[in-house]
Amino acid sequence: MKTFQEALAICEKEKDGFYLSAFMFQAWLGQLLLDAAAQYAEKKDPRDRSMQNGQAWRAFLDLFRRPAVQTPESSNQPPSTSSPPPPALSDSDLPHILSDLLRFAGCDDPMSEWLANAAIPLSIEHDCTGDYIGPKSLATARLPKEAADLARRSIARWCDWLDACIHYRTHQFWHLAPACFDPDPEKRELALLGTIQRHAAGQTESSRARWQSHFSEAAERFKDSPKWSTLGKAMSAQSDRLWPYHDIDAIIISLWPLLKKHNWTYRDLLNVASEIISLSSINHKRSTINYPLDSEQSLATYCTNVLGLRKSAKGVTAKTGKPPGHDIALRFFTKP
Q1: How do residues 59-70 score in pLDDT, each as one tens digit?
Q2: What per-residue string of b and e applies to 244-268 under the rule 16 or more CB within 10 Å gives b?
Q3: Which of 108, 189, 200, 326 has CB atoms 3.0–4.6 Å from 322's, for a disulfide?
């Protein structure tokens, strides 16, 4: 579905409004990916980046705001700069949108994979706490008001985990495919097309179809542009960018939603990350924990100066070394 009109036509044909939601989800996720890439490409200093600050939830609310009702008289008037913003999502909207999100996450679509991946930690969190959508909250989901509150909390939390998934994959891609992070957004687009083509053998049929459609459109748009050569260069480009702490980066970025929710201190994060490493095979060759997990100060500096992550509030370190959410973190990274 390339246009709103095409999505609407499918809805009418199938007698199913889901396809309009799916079209909006694709646009929402695509913009989040573009924005994350822009953070890395256009802000070379990680301290200038803004990662995992509620981007997905804010964009979701903006996308699904209901249009303001217009009277015949007002529709002919130019928009007023003092007009109030469109109303936020109503409670009655939320369970239906959550249902469409869950359905979309199971679709055979490249964008659906992002929601499916973010649903894994959300599911673990539900299993450990009983909060959010899942088997343990079915009774709550049957009550109208409670169901709306549950849907809002679940979507907002899903968005937190989505921010973390997008951040980590962008961070990973920045190391493995630096050609895709040119300051020029058009060159980024072409480099991404070239990089995807390079790995075409492992793609699903829907991914290949999506690539072919994008490639054909880009070929026409850039046929007379010197930027077109960026695609070919990306197909053969090799990365020489070192990534010495990839395992630690994965842990920190992935657990940031837990740090934010429970207001972990950097000492809490250090304790949890160190335990994950000691219990898993991530660093089985290490006999000791090294930088950036050698001290609380090292970790705080690393989060800000390398990962673009910073705490917004001062917390209290758990005396046991096991802060709230500790069990969720271990379930996420270690086998039962």
Answers
A1: 999 887 755 444
A2: ebebbbbbbbbbbbbbbeeebbbbb
A3: 326
Give the C-alpha separation, 111 to 104, whole Å. Answer: 9
Residues in the chain: 336
108 burial (CB, 10 Å; 0-12 / 13-18 / 19+) is exposed
* Statement: the pTM of the whole predicted model exceeds 0.85: yes
CA separation (Å) from 261 to 3, 125, 291? 37, 12, 25
- Average confidence (pLDDT) over 105-115: 91
Contact 95, 151 (CB under 8 A): yes
Angle of the 229-236 helix axis to the 185-198 helix axis, nearest 10: 40
Lowest mean pLDDT among 102-106, 276-280, 291-295: 276-280
Q: How far apart are alpha carbons 129 and 126 in whole angstroms?
A: 5
Question: Cβ distance 215 to 221 under 8 Å?
Answer: no
Instruction: Indicate the SS3 state at residue 167.
Output: helix
